[in-house]
Amino acid sequence: MKNFIEEVTWRGMLHDVMPGTEEHLMEQMRVAYVGIDPTADSLHIGHLVGVMLLRHFQLSGHKPLALVGGATGMIGDPSGKSNERNLLDEATLRHNQEAIKAQLARFLDFTSAEANAAELVNNYDWMKEFSFLDFIRDVGKHITVNYMMAKDSVKKRLTGETSEGMSFTEFTYQLVQGYDFLHLYRAKKCTLQMGGSDQWGNITTGTELVRRIESGKAYALTCPLITKADGTKFGKSEGGNIWLDAERTSPYKFYQYWLNTSDVDAEKYIKIFTFLDKETIEKLIVEHNEAPHLRALQKRLAEEITVMVHSAADLENAIAASNAFFSPSMDELKKLDEKTFLEVFDGVPQAEISMEDLSAGLDMIAALAAKTNFLASNSDARRELKQNSISLNKEKVGEDKIITKEDLINNQFLLLQKGKKNYYVIKVK
User: Fold this and answer.
1) Is there a binding annotation on residue 177?
2) Please, how many CA atoms are within 13 Å of residue 306, restricted to the half-sphere of its CB?
3) Residue 155 in marked binding region
4) pLDDT tens-digit map of 190-212
């Protein structure tokens, strides 16, 4: 039996833990769960800490349960939020559950013949037949309103300056989550719930129900809420969430997100989001500190997590796309598909012209100004061309260059460049 608490502690994944948890886990195989919000058909990287906790739990010889909150997803957890969430119907929640399980299978072993095989459970399955009267009689009577009001998730919503209060539906959330723990304690012998630090109040409501109704002992463990060194929100980019679904966030953009982390964040994230051992990580940190410009930590972090979430082939493509941008030749760029090419040049000014414009040949003045407005005027285009500062597909060109179909990248794109850093993309239709 591996010491789970020691493992998550050195990785910086432990925020708070109920006394006696470590001893409890070292006695024999235990069962723990993490709740996952099913409001989308994909996890995003904000979910990954909880998933990694479950994986480390399984690697330590214990049995992980991933609880998809089909019932609680219909209510909305007030923790850390200022507004009530939109509620989903059952069909949508079921679809989301299946998509999420497929992603979890890249981290957790659901098919093992061992006793600690992972399981996916949905609290809608045991809550859907539970009537309101039965719930308030069998569960609600065991927890006082005073106890519920004392929770931070409730107090913050009721006392905040911009607070609009909270609905009765949200107020009862902690009871519903607490009942999940009680149900899993009874049905699966689950004795530990894990989650983010903002979940402590909800988790301990569950341990209290286990104590009061079953006279049992249950435990709570939370991990820190992940932050970025610059104060911006972890897991977000300018385009929104960083998703695990390749259709929502491409492997290239996923890889780039981790590659662009700061030195401080990379040192923290490589412990949390990879399964590299302590010795390997410590060596990487030393290597990085000796030559920070080589970004050894960021590269290894991005490589490990991209393979884990996507595949080795996706990683190779992402690296090739990253290198293509900086390559002095067009060989790598020509290998990219349309979607990846546009992602590599995301944010670069773009213009469209018709294939007919190339049929008779397109002169450089038109390509830079008249047809695209990349430069303000024809005279500006002529001046830049005379100064030898314009490149077409990474090769310097003059005013006499005529662009034809043969110049197209993947029969679709032209890449213009003014100086070293100013790129322009022409898409030909």
Assistant:
1) yes
2) 25
3) no
4) 999 999 998 998 899 999 999 99
